[in-house]
Amino acid sequence: MTARGDRILGLGLFVLAVAYGWAAQQWPEPFGGAETVGPETFPTLLSVVLALSSVYLIVKPDPDAHWPMGRTAAEILLAIAILVAYAFLLEPLGFVISTTLAVGALCWRMGAKPVPAVLIGLAAAVVVYFLFNYGLELSLPAGLLEFE
Amino acid sequence: METLQFLMDGFAVALTPTNLMFALFGAFIGTLIGALPGLGPANGVAILIPLAFTLGLPPETAMILLTSVYAGAMYGGRISSILLNIPGDEPAMMTCLDGYPMAQKGKAAEALAMSAIASFAGSLIGTIGLILLAPALAKFALTFGPAEYFALFMLAFATLGGITGKNPMKTVIAAVIGLMISTVGIDIATGTQRYTFGILKLYEGIDFILAIVGLFAISELLFFIEERAGAGRKMIEVGKLMLRPKEIISALPTMFRGGVLGFIAGVLPGAGASLGSFISYTLEKQYLGKKGNFGEGDPRGVAAPEAGNNGASSGALVPMLTLGVPGSGTTAVLLAMLISLNVTPGPLMFTQNADIVWGVIAALLIGNVILLLLNIPMVGFFVKLLSVPPMYLLPMVTMVAFVGIYSISHSTFDLYFMIAFGVAGYILRKLEIPLVPIILGMLLGPEMEKNLGHALVISDGDWSILWASPLALGLWIVAGLGLILPYIVGPLLRKRMRAAIKENPTSD
């Protein structure tokens, strides 16, 4: 029984708590002089609570969950990459093209055959685009498909 | 009979054509969300928030829409429990016990109809309870000072893990992370910049809608990819409906008991709909004893948990509406909507925003009638949708999340933020850190800090004011119990819940 996950988390949170609490002490005194309650009171309280509970986590960690390895981990990283690319390409390529690619790629990686996956992506993109731009009058970027 | 007058005003709000249309739409979408595996009610309501927001709906309409979705999701959860033996959401777990055996015996249609009626009965009882209890509680809550509120927030966090929660320390950690996120931005009281790192985007703080959608929707997608559950499952055929009125009448007392128990479980902090349906089912089983054949497809075994979880979902609205303190994930998401609409939740809402509160309550009543009407004839349609495999569904949900977030601010920066929250949500869920306290922390953080500040100003810096009054002290004690009890009762309860499911040989 290993419990590395919780220990690493506990350590990370402890560092966060210290940094967070330390930063709170650095703020300049608010205009009008210090009072009983300043902007740092609540954060200081939080950092103490987090520090204590993260120590508890290091001392008494739960057993590790099963972390994905190998191919599954690669699939998850790929999915995250698809999402980031989707966000990145949304404006330059426009909603319809980027959505077709992103939804198609995600469907495909989740187990659909490539052709239906892209078709589903395209259909979803077109329907949502028209629904938003004409039905609800919220503009989604047209990108490459914009006609002058 | 002041309440009745308010309720009538509420109906006047809810019955306008636009609001009625949104209630219908919400009920429909909600049932869908509840039915589809991998889309829980909190998740579903979360991805609809940005849409409700960008459509520029007035507050009462937006709330009516989301409450209908919430009510609908509770109805929908039962469909996959009965047909697939997979609960659509956690509260629907107990419905599997008798629902699936009924379906295996070729009585799927009966099980679906019976559970729809039970859901209606449970919701009706819960909503009546809400109408009776909420105004009184709101009046009582007006006597709360800042110290009592601070203690109340502590109570909310302490009990959020629920009696069945696993490691209470992880609930604490989650809540603190949420509260920390809420402190990012310019401090309202003094104007000090906190944790902004000079990034302009962070001056206004981190938008919790982004966080909610990321934590729920995106992390769910990653979970499905990990489990490779993209293909979906085989399902049982739904035959012709042959439910006799006699059977319904014989289950009425069961529904009544289930609804009342569920409502109580919903109101109590930390219990929630899952426990509501569990208690309703177990007590009903004990009460009827050998007279029923529970676990082998007794219709009452479907009626009890469904009445229970729908009663609980109405009950959970009581603390959310009266105190501004939600008791469950979905009500936390509803609270996020209220805050984004600039409505201050809490007891004052009953006087200052009476149209919203009572409009929502009236919409719940109307929504339930709509849901019953929707669920009996259209059940075939929902069943068809259930066969949409997650490999198509989840990418679509992700797209809706992207569209919603993008249309709020038209900024791709927000999309990156949402993805980051999604990845963080996935990692935290793997580490068994619950996500709901994080969201609650983000939502309640500013109020909590404000009340702490007020209390300390009143007492001139004396911290003991926080537990000076008997009421505040009582709240602290309950909060303490809420953290300690799961250690003692939790393993026992979890064991019994698991035993109840294992006992049933047909459910596997």
Automatic annotation (TrEMBL), chain A:
The keyword Protein biosynthesis does not apply. This is Tripartite tricarboxylate transporter TctB family protein. Keywords: Membrane, Transmembrane, Transmembrane helix. Residues 8-141 form the DUF1468 domain. It comes from Marinobacter halodurans. The chain crosses the membrane at residues 42-59, 71-89, 118-136.
From TrEMBL, chain B:
Keywords: Membrane, Transmembrane, Transmembrane helix. Residues 20-440 form the DUF112 domain. Coiled coil: none annotated. The keyword Transmembrane applies. InterPro entries: DUF112_TM. It holds the Pfam family TctA. The chain crosses the membrane at residues 20-39, 45-71, 111-134, 140-160, 172-190, 202-225, 260-283, 323-344, 356-383, 389-408, 415-445, 465-489. This is Tripartite tricarboxylate transporter permease.
